[in-house]
Amino acid sequence: MTFFRRYAQHYGALVGLAILGMVLLLALLAPLIYPVSPWQGVGEPLLGPFEDPAFPLGTDMLGRDIAAGLAYGARVSLLIGVVSTAVAVVIGVSIGALAGFYGGRIDDLLMRFTEFFQTIPAFAMAIVLVAIFNPTITSITLAIAIVSWPPVARLVRGEFMSLRSREFVQAAVVVGQSGPRIMLTQILPNTLSPIIVTASLMVATAILTESSLSFLGLGDRNMMSWGFMIGAARTMLREAWWMSVFPGVAILVTVLAINLIGEGLNDAMNPHLRGRKG
Amino acid sequence: MKKISRLALGLAGLVGLAAITGVQAEEAKTPVAGGTLNMIAQPEPPILMVGLNTQGPTLYVGGQIYQSLLTYGTGLEVLPSLAKAWDVSEDGLTYTFTLQDNVKWHDGQPFTAEDVVFTADKFLREAHPRWRYIANTYVESIASPAPGKVVFQLKKPFSAFLYAFELSSFPVVPKHIYEGTDYRTNPANQTPIGTGPFKLEEWKRGSYIHLVKNEDYWKPGQPYLDELYFRIIPDAASRAVAFEKGAVDVLRGGDVEGFAVRRLAKLDGVETTTAGWEMYSPVVFLQMNTRKAPLDEKRVRQAVMHALDREFIVKNVFFGLGKPATSPVASTTRFHSQDVAAYPFDMAKAKALLDEAGVKPAEHTVRLMPIPYGSQWDRLAEYVKQQVEQLGFKVSIQGVDPGGWSQALSEWDFDMTFNFTYQYGDPALGVARHYLSANIIKGTPFGNNQGYSNPKVDELLLAGASAVSAEDAAKAYAEAQKILTEEVALGWLYEMHNVTISREKVRNLVTTGIGLNEAMDEVWLAQ
């Protein structure tokens, strides 16, 4: 079976892919659909959904279009989700690979360093980092990356430790390949499956973390984001539910989609589950 | 015959009914002693010693413990407090106060003129920046020529002097406790001793402040209430719920957010008022740093003012709790002038002004620092950003915490920010500080931080302050307001309305222009 057919056996994964595709499309097309900035008041304040056909999801207290906010928010969420995960994976894989391959003192040192990060609650640390470095999209992305790499490092270390003693690696050693080359060309390709699965789920967590930071008012104040929209609307939940409900649904659906994809990838890449009906 | 008797009966019945309702109305007006009033101190004050800290919650709680010489009505008329009478000489240089008799401190010591002299000459001169400025600039000597009399001799006339004796400016402190000590570290600050109607019983940090009736209070038969509780509830939504559930009876302006005010005001048996803030009359303004291009150009500031719809701000950002401001002097205080440059919402005019000034907005990025006091202020920043961006400028919002805001403002490190300050009843006390070039000093967020300087305005403001007659003062202040508005020394946005929400059973709650900071000696609870 090809990889995609294995993946497609899992219906949820297909649905997830479709939803994520739509969110991605929305994010890419946002400036075309809504040429006016999402911060700009364009209608009467506090219009409910469908009250005015021009604003199907209503407007907020300053007359800003909720739908435009969702489209631009998708850009921020996806961007931060993907970039921070990429950074976290690079850090995690490097540290995990070195620790797992060389073992001994290096392993001890790197793992104590990793544990240092693991013992601090991730979200609290993200708040502190963002507060120190002033909230901008770069600092938020880095803060999320810094708090989310330790699990990757742990995972990769485990994989490297178990693969290091396999015959094909010993063969590479005998042939005279250098350590870095063995790591990159022999072991790393064999650890890609779990890394990809973990990374896909990390994207979802990163989106949630960014939303939570924005909700608390620690987002980039010049970027429209879903968490910010809920944070700003939360105080008026009783008067104008649509202001918080739609961005909330957007977060829910996107995170769900990514989780479904992650599960699909897991099923498709895990050799033990080959042949399992999804 | 039958008919007549029936009529008579009916009449008698009506009279009887009238008599009964009359009695009820009478009962509803006659104060009843007893009861506990629950309020909220938000945020929890660091200290209750009003002479050392004049933050809102300190005044609110401390105003029940400490008292000042004078207080002020809702029309800012001067009213007696610890001084029962006062006299101003013809030349405006000698102020004589006659004190109330039989006043005692909470520890039983008698209150005397010596306490007032000590407060004015020693304590506040050292501990209170606003009084220090007045005392060092205008006051020649403070003395007590006879028991119960205090005389302030001025170096030069000061038209606002009678307004400088309000609670937050001049709380009288006990000489026998503070004389010869380090005021700030005196342990008595934790167990405040005042002359007010209530005494501190217990302060459970993070939970409540409990005050009890002062049995020896100098107004006979008062206070009516037995106990006051100031509850500490850090979350705004929980404070609203506490009022809804009846755990507290009074909400002060700012205790709950604007949207909750509208909801709570509609509950049964609830009263609201915006009175009781006349002395303070906070005016919210956009502060544009006049040192920085392009805001150094008067026409750019005028353009910004034309681009802001202040009606929209009041209605949609602050839930209608305010009134667009037209002048630096609030319309509720003395010497407010209508004859000023006006800035109606007009984008075309704003753009024309920028063209006229030759400013190319696209070349400028303006930093906008919101005041970090809650979601409404964030919305205000977002609104200003969107309007100023429509003029063509790029605006970048810089999120800061309260410490960061205060620091950036004090160090003049900002392009645009917001602020609001109390006016203290008279332009010389609360308004002039933002425009006098002598007040361009680093280190405080409440001075002339925008760097506005105009010798003519300096002259007019000082002339108003040292005028002997009210007419002369009004003339000078009107002229100053005209220039200040024309040059947009600050971008006045709106006059804040603070809503006091209370249950109907709470009577006589707001009686003066300092509102809930007034000693609650006349407040009583209907059964």
Automatic annotation (TrEMBL), chain A:
Q: Name one GO biological process term.
A: peptide transport
Which residues constitute the signal peptide according to the record?
A: none
Q: Where is the ABC transmembrane type-1 domain?
A: 74-262
Q: Which InterPro entries match?
A: BP-dependent_transpt_permease, MetI-like, MetI-like_sf, OppC_N
- The transmembrane segments are 12-34, 78-104, 195-219, 240-261
Taxonomically, the superkingdom here is: Bacteria
- Annotated membrane topology: Multi-pass membrane protein
Keyword terms of this UniProt record: Cell membrane, Membrane, Peptide transport, Protein transport, Transmembrane, Transmembrane helix, Transport
An annotated GO cellular component of this protein is: plasma membrane
Q: Where in the cell is it found?
A: Cell membrane
**SUPFAM superfamilies tied to this protein:** MetI-like (SSF161098)
- Member of which family? Belongs to the binding-protein-dependent transport system permease family.
Q: What is this protein called?
A: ABC transporter permease
Automatic annotation (TrEMBL), chain B:
Q: Carries keyword Signal?
A: yes
Task: Recall the GO molecular function terms of this protein's record.
Answer: peptide transmembrane transporter activity
Please list which residues make up the signal peptide.
Answer: 1-25
A Pfam family found in this protein is: SBP_bac_5
Q: Kindly indicate whether the keyword Ligase belongs to this entry.
A: no
Q: Which UniProt keywords apply?
A: Signal
Cell compartment(s), UniProt: Periplasm
Chain ranges of the Solute-binding protein family domain: 77-429
- Primary residence: periplasm
One GO cellular component term noted in the UniProt record for this chain = outer membrane-bounded periplasmic space
Q: Which InterPro entries match?
A: Peptide/Ni-bd, SBP_5, SBP_5_dom
Q: Write out the GO biological process terms.
A: peptide transport
Q: Which family does it belong to?
A: Belongs to the bacterial solute-binding protein 5 family.
Q: Which PANTHER family match?
A: D,D-DIPEPTIDE-BINDING PERIPLASMIC PROTEIN DDPA-RELATED, PERIPLASMIC BINDING COMPONENT OF ABC TRANSPORTER
The protein here is known as: ABC transporter substrate-binding protein
Q: Which organism is it from?
A: Marinimicrococcus flavescens
